[in-house]
Amino acid sequence: MAEISPLLILSIIGGYFLFLMIISYVTSKGSQSEDFFVGGRQSPWYIVAFGMIGATLSGVTFISIPGFVGDSKFSYMQVVLGYIVGYIIIAFVLMPMYYRLRLTSIYTYLEKRFGWRAYKTGAAYFLLSRSIGAAFRLFLVAIVLQQFLMQPFGVPFAATILFTIGLIWIYTFRGGIKTIVWTDTLQTASMLIAVIATIIVLGREMNLGAWEIVETVRQSELSQIWFFEGGWSDSENFFKQFLSGIFITIVMTGLDQDMMQKNLSCRNLRDAQKNMMTMTGVLVLANLLFLSLGVLLYLYTAQIGLEMPTRIVNGEAKAASDLLYPTLALGYLSPAVGIVFLIGLIAAAYSSADSALTALTTSFCIDFLGFEKSALSEGQKRKRRLWVHLGFSFLLFLIIMIFYYLNDQAVIKALFRIAGYTYGPLLGLYAFGFFINRKSNDKFIPLVCILAPLISLLIDTFSDQLLWGYKFGFEILILNGIITFLGLWLFSRPEQTDSSLLSSHAVKS
After folding, report:
1. Burial class (CB in 10 A: 0-12, 13-18, 19+), 1
2. Would you state the pLDDT for residue 350?
3. What total number of domains does the chain contain?
């Protein structure tokens, strides 16, 4: 392992969190409930745009995407290209509606369009999806932190998680989204600096100049982007990946309170759209950097004759490509790379977890405690919000510990995929609400939204027999949304819907 003093590591981590606390203190001065939820709608769009990169990438991208290159080459870029279309749809179809209705929680749209049951169902699916998703992402990064940093100090995993979530709670419970907008900016910068620094050092280790690094990556067989040969049965087929990227973006950004809360904190719709388009461009470049880093990591591993790192699963050693980057950064490259990697890793862990915790608190306070219509005083709201924030912190801790004690990567990934299923009903609800001028019976909407993921899961399980060997990937989300949409149609009737709730009117406005 690179010779990095434990005292130096702790000092750097301590300094990083001290900086986060200072940001929290400055941004939370005089904060009201509205500031916690939407930052007083005064966030600079360019700060939001840059900060959203970190939340979008998350710790999974930071440690897994470079390792993913070994198995799937640059096929992930096909999904990223789909992201571009998805973000355009969000910016010019969804966000005009959100701003027109001045929403704090985006799920209040469902109440205006369908009714109370649809509203609560949509909000509940978000809470379930984001709780599992945020815990999963934090778990993956925490495993690396534990193995390479905390374990040598004899710190148990539960203490690592409690400490991690506790720090998030401390710097977010006052300022909320007003603080997150600025801490995300620091975290994004930390991640990108770590990746760029590692690429530069790997280039030097391999005696490559700047242009030679570009050419080496471009000429490597690992940089193949386009996959058409395998047809629709191939999980890496371009059209499947591209379509999946579009719909993943729409549901996991446009229909997700966590991501949209940042956009709604901008001063106006035009600023929010500039934020979204700028973020899209930077995100594409960031993903190219991560994938290029993956190529260099594999080439360097082959050059020094290093075997792929392994992880013990059910008593058996299995190759763990997501440990390749941390293994090289902390064990084979210079101490400087190890330091920036640790900072980037911590930033990656916190960039998605802190905003998720804030969004969960916002959704529960607005959607289930009715803060917007409540007659409670500011002090009473602050007290209740604090307890909700604390409650979701504890929930994340419990879910992460369940993942840890399962100790089965297949089961954990299956749980994460189940969380992905729960975005399907949101896709169907919003698609029907935006584009169909019919009124679905609110009484049956919870039933439709429960059955749709179950039917999708059943079709996915038996797709070999039902669909001539076809295997679903990310596109199961689209099927889930279509089933929800059809269910809503089945229980609908022609009725004049308020045109201000349909996207065509919102876009013209």
Report:
1. exposed
2. 72
3. 1
Pick from 68, 145, 70, 74: which is nearest to 301 by CA? 70
Mark out the alpha helices in 101-209 (DSSP H runs).
108-113, 116-145, 157-172, 177-205
For residue 317, give the 3-state DSSP assignment: strand
Nearest C-alpha neighbor of 141 from the set 78, 194, 219:
194
**Residue 74, token pair as written in the block:** 């640059």
The CA dihedral of 220, 223, 227, 229, to the nearest 10 degrees, is 10
Assigned domain for 459 exists: no
Rounded CA separation 217/299 (Å): 9
**Structural contact between residues 473 and 426, judged by C-beta atoms closer than 8 angstroms:** no
CA-to-CA distance for 137 and 143, rounded, in angstroms?
Answer: 10
Q: Is the pLDDT of residue 294 over 90?
A: yes
Residue 110 has a pLDDT of 94
55 φ/ψ sector (left φ>0, alpha ψ -120 to 50, else beta):
alpha
Domain holding 43, by residue range, is: 6-17+39-369+381-410
Structural domain includes residue 61: yes
Q: Flag whether 220 is in a domain.
A: yes
CA 94 to CA 106: how far, in whole Å? 10
235 has a pLDDT exceeding 80: no
| β partners of residue 492 | 440
Query: Is the Cβ–Cβ distance between 217 and 296 less than 8 Å?
Result: yes
Taking the C-alpha atoms of residue 363 and residue 396, their distance in angstroms, rounded to an integer, is: 16
Amino acid at 142: A
Q: Residue 137 sits in a domain of what CATH number? A: 1.20.1730.10
**Residue 420 counted as domain residue:** no
Q: Please spell the DSSP secondary structure of 270-293, one letter per residue.
A: HHHHHHHHHHHHHHHHHHHHHHHH
Strand, coil or helix: 498: coil
Using alpha carbons, select from 161, 104, 141, 504 the residue that is nearest to residue 341. Answer: 141
Helix (H) or strand (E) holding 311: strand 310-313
Contact 29, 288 (CB under 8 A): no
- What average pLDDT does the chain have? 83
Q: DSSP class of residue 441? A: -
CA 262/CA 259 separation, integer angstroms:
6
CA distance from start to end of the chain? 59
